[in-house]
Amino acid sequence: MHYDSLRHFADSWGLVYLFAIFAIVGIYMLRPGARERAREAALIPLKHEGKGPL
Q1: Would you say 34 and 28 are in contact if contact means Cβ atoms under 8 Å apart?
Q2: Alpha carbon distance 21, 15 (integer Å)
Q3: How many other CB atoms are found less than 10 A from the CB of residue 32?
Q4: Residues with Cβ < 8 Å from 29, sequence gap 6 or more?
Q5: Helix H segments across 1-54?
Q6: What is the 8-class DSSP label of residue 49?
Q7: Angle formed by the axes of helices 34-42 and 15-30, to 10°?
């Protein structure tokens, strides 16, 4: 394959692929049961369990 054909493929189907991933993740995060898991994941950096220098 030549560079031009690879670039054309990436310009067209790469965009479709990345948009599909974005849409799937968006739908996954907006489903009803995802709120609590997202909240727990957002608070992970703030949890301190007595381990380490903090």
Answers
A1: yes
A2: 10
A3: 6
A4: 38
A5: 3-9, 15-30, 34-42
A6: -
A7: 100
